[in-house]
Specification:
Elements: E1 3-7, E2 10-17, E3 26-30, H1 43-51, E4 55-58, H2 77-93, E5 98-103, H3 105-114, E6 123-129, H4 137-152, H5 155-163, H6 167-178, E7 199-204, H7 213-221, E8 225-230, H8 237-240, H9 242-255
Parallel strand pairs: 3-4, 3-5, 5-6, 6-7, 7-8
Antiparallel strand pairs: 1-2, 2-4
Helix pairs in contact: 1-9, 2-3, 5-6
């Protein structure tokens, strides 16, 4: 059943999975550039069960059944989500201590948030899947391919099942921001050395949206960091190698529970 969380004058689509033991952090899921609550499928609930933590999933504005996000989105839209939107959502949801689990754009948002400690006082750890920390030509090529699939093939119909009235908002907000000429210079590596919590970074070996150079940069700049390059996997480890991703995330979370 769809639930909503009001934050100031904005309505967010959310879902809670209540499996947490007392004093455990909440697992907060940040979706990819074309994701939303429903596209996480059953993974958040299963990870919550495995770790005995509550899980909180939400759709950013412009996605799923959340309120729209006016177009065009600026190249710094992930900074805005990490430093303005996310703290407000956590406060409205009553979340004091948490672990961020971010996929693709959501992973980048998690790293920006974690790399700004005054914005993340309750953060205990970060898990990323296919996070970008700088822009690569392969990323832009795949985003151009997605544009063709949206305009000329059936990608729009597939996304409409999940984003409904937000379908164009979600796609064009994301696609046009990434294909803005200024985005070629987008780089968040300066946030990485400031991260003071443990990080687990996963990436598929055949990810069409990024090379292993992303993992290398994350590993080289973060003190407490474990990186895993997953074989036979593309852009979404939790969907393409769910058992492996589940096991690695579960072990990491349990190792850092207080």
């Amino acid at each position: 059943m769809t639930q909503f969380l009001p934050v100031d004058n904005t309505r967010y689509e959310i879902r809670w999975y209540r499996y947490g033991k007392k004093n455990r952090p909440v697992l907060v899921f940040l979706h990819e550039g074309l994701g939303c609550v429903k596209l996480w499928k059953s993974f958040p609930e299963r990870l919550a069960q495995q770790t005995a933590c509550d899980a909180f999933v939400f759709s950013r504005t412009g996605y799923g059944e959340s309120d729209p996000e006016p177009l065009p989105w600026k190249p710094n839209f992930m900074h805005t989500q990490a430093l303005k939107a996310l703290p407000g959502i956590l406060a409205a949801a009553g979340i004091d201590t948490y672990i961020l689990i971010g996929h693709s754009d959501g992973g980048s948002i998690a790293l920006i948030h974690a790399g700004t400690p005054h914005a993340a006082p309750g953060l205990k750890a970060v898990i990323t899947e296919a996070a970008h920390v700088f822009c690569e030509p392969v990323t832009l090529a795949s985003i151009r391919t997605a544009k063709t699939a949206y305009v000329s093939r059936n990608l729009k119909e597939k996304l409409a099942r999940y984003h409904k009235a937000n379908t164009d908002n979600a796609f064009w907000g994301w696609n046009n921001a990434w294909l803005n000429p200024r985005f070629a210079y987008w780089d968040i590596q300066k946030f990485l050395p400031r991260i003071q919590v443990p990080v687990l970074a996963l990436q598929g070996k055949t990810d069409p949206y990024g090379t292993p150079a992303q993992l290398t940069a994350i590993r080289n700049h973060i003190t407490h960091c474990d990186t895993r390059l997953i074989p036979d996997c593309g852009h979404a480890p939790h969907m393409e190698q769910p058992d492996l991703a589940m096991a690695q995330m579960t072990d990491f979370i349990k190792a850092h529970l207080e």
